[in-house]
Amino acid sequence: MDNVNSAGNNTQTTTRNIFDLEWTGINLLLVLIYGFITVLLVAIFAKRMIHRVSLKFSHSVEVEGSGANKSLKLEIRTRMEEAINFAYEPTLLNPGDDRLNMDVKPGHFYFVNRMKTVDGFRNIDQVLGDLNKDLYRPKGKNVRQHLFDAKSHSSGCLRAVRTNQLQALADFYLQARFGTEPYHFEDHLKFLDVEAEIVAILRQRTHRKRTKDKRKELHRQNAATVEVQSTSVDDVEVTLKSNLSPLGGSSTQPLLEGVVHNASTESV
Predict the structure, then answer these.
(1) Is residue 227 a contact partner of residue 156, using CB atoms and an 8 Å limit?
(2) For position 263, what pLDDT does the model report?
(3) Residue 165 maps to a domain
(4) What is the pTM of this model?
(5) Could you tell me the pLDDT band of residue 248, with boundaries at 50, 70 and 90?
(6) Is residue 10 part of a domain?
């Protein structure tokens, strides 16, 4: 009991000694610094936890350049606007590629059918570009929108093509390029059938246009030849008249009139 009482007395004495200490300026400053650091760390930890939870449950789209200063944000937006014009559509299967002639088995190599369809759409682009330079499809432009714009173009190149044909062509292309379902070889054959019908109509129009242009050029050449010939005949007549000297009568009479005048005088 004496030991317990002595231990309790020592504890009370130690506590009393702590509170009885004189708080000097350095001790008070250290306590304030440690307390500020502790509060700051707790605030940072709480903020990070709140931010993580809010990001986990928020689905808002972050704007480009958010959180950056004004100059950096302007630079980011400028680069993003320039990046829109960067587009490249490579040829997926070159003419010498072995995959063009491979037998695609059902359930395997669906990507080959997709690549064939995507490359096959270039025939439409080429024929439309041959008809009118304004109908070249810009890289990255939506295929369906481009076909409808070409159909409503003032040149009328796709006027003879039905709207459902253009819809089917765009559907096959978009399914081959962006679709998630398997793209079978039969789908590629259907695409080729629709494409062949449209290309045949466009090539027929191209042939008519070239024939019409040749006729116009031929008429223009014939008109130029006739004009040159008439001009040369007029030049010859003017040259002959200027070279004829008067014979008898007035000095302004040509040779033929002079001969007639002399013949009439002799007969009298």
Answers:
(1) no
(2) 43
(3) yes
(4) 0.48
(5) very low
(6) no
